[in-house]
Fold this sequence. Notes:
214 residues, Methyltransferase, Methionine Synthase (B12-binding Domains), Chain A, domain 1, Rossmann fold, 9 helices, 57% helix, 10% strand
Amino acid sequence: MLDLDDRLDRIYENILDYEAKQVAELVKSEVEAGTDLKIILDDALIAAMDEVGDLFAEGELFVPEMLMAANAMKAGMEILRPLLSESDVPSAGKVVIGTVHRDIHDIGKNLVGMMLEGGGFEVIDLGVNVAPAEFVEAAAKHSPDIIGMSALLTTTMPNMPKTIDALHKADFKGKIIVGGAPVTLEFAETIGSDSYAPDASVAVSLAREMLGID
Ligand code: B1M
């Protein structure tokens, strides 16, 4: 039988090869072998997604490949998630994410959610066409560390400041991150967002930075 490092390496490599079914099977056998869940999460799933993020940033991978890797990671997460919630493995932080009101684009938002999950965050996805009041309600219900908003239309970008205002009025104390193709750093700064990420991999680095995680 392979030693633990080699077995974790196989999971890692299968994520980079987009082999969702293999990842699920390997994670399942690792759980059955009694391997620490945090080791599987950190040294295989999160490590692979960190590598995917780096390759994306270097222009070696593109959105479709990042999505396939995220899907493979997700297959492993499906096995770990119910067990992690019963165990004492701490999440990196809680993120509520959604596409703003009147906007139904969700591919980028889903990718950001998956990459955050791959980065060890607990992600609560509110879906698309999320009204400011729904973000406020989710903030009260889940007390997230971060709220993330995505907008793909110039006509729905103004729903970001509306949501931020509503969150501030409701005394939300966490951080806010925005993104989406038409969103810029300048726009994010003018609407009072704590940060702006141009892509999913930067979103993970910024979320870690905002929460003081190395
Ligand atoms: Co739409 N659409 N669309 N569309 N659509 C765009 C956005 C558009 C640019 C196309 C175009 O005209 N060239 C244009 C917007 C123009 C504008 O506003 N200036 C447009 C339009 C006009 C529309 C409709 C109005 C069309 C119509 O009905 N007349 C309509 C609007 C519907 C609505 O929302 N109310 C509409 C509908 C649709 C579909 C339903 C057909 C479909 C969406 C399917 C879905 O999402 N499930 C769709 C699609 C697919 C697109 C394009 C082709 C692709 C978007 C996408 O998924 N990109 C898009 C053109 C384009 O962008 N090339 C277009 C891939 C995705 C991975 O990238 O979402 O940018 P992106 O996410 C990136 C980053 O932006 C960032 O990270 C992601 C990954 O790196 N990011 C974040 C995103 N969210 C983030 C959040 C963060 C941080 C980073 O923190 C929380």
